[in-house]
Amino acid sequence: MNTKPNENLVTLPLHDLIWNILGDESNGAMCNTITLNTAIILDNLLKNSLKWKVEFNNKDGEPLKEPVLWRYSEWKSSNDTYTRQKLYAHKERVTRWIKDKNVEDLARAIVKETRMTIEVARPIAASVFRKGNVEVLNYLGLKKIITKEEEL
Asked: Of 6, 81, 84, 120, which is least packed with CB atoms within 10 Å of its CB?
């Protein structure tokens, strides 16, 4: 074990250190894990860099087990893709919730008008919504069709 604190310190150019971690631009890795000490030092040196980025947290803000050194362009692309996918997934969930709520409301209206069971009314309600005939929806007793997330 080292008893002298500076015994194993090495000085080398920043570009060489990053090349050792990521490789060259054409054949290297887009990112790689690094030790916490290296990450702290590099994060300070690369604060405003548009070439490299040190990441301590994942895209949801949770701490990573090991920090990651990224090529900035790859990091930006990865973040943009993640954000687009997350927005798309949310939009799809909301669309499904709206459809499910409308079908459930129509099924309840059908039960109220016809006295059939809710289990029988749900497939009928889903079929009517798929066809999208507003007059039939109104006739079957659906007062309001939900179209926005705020209305859920």
From this structure: 6
pLDDT for residue 5? 67
**pLDDT tens for residues 88-124?**
999 999 999 999 999 999 999 999 988 899 999 999 9
Q: What 3-state class would DSSP assign to 126?
A: helix
- Asked if 83 and 138 count as a contact pair (C-beta separation under 8 A), the reply is no
Q: Report the alpha-carbon distance of residue 80 to residue 49 in Å, rounded.
A: 18
Domain membership of residue 84 (yes or no) is no
Give the structural domain span for 43.
14-77
Q: Is 111 contained in some domain?
A: yes
Give the H/E segment covering residue 41.
helix 36-45
Residues 69 and 96 in one domain: no
Look at residue 5 and tell me if it is in a domain.
no
Q: What are the tokens at 109?
A: 């209206």
Q: Which amino acid, one-letter code, is at 30?
A: M
Residue 53, classified by CB atoms within 10 Å of its CB into exposed (0-12), middle (13-18) or buried (19+), is buried
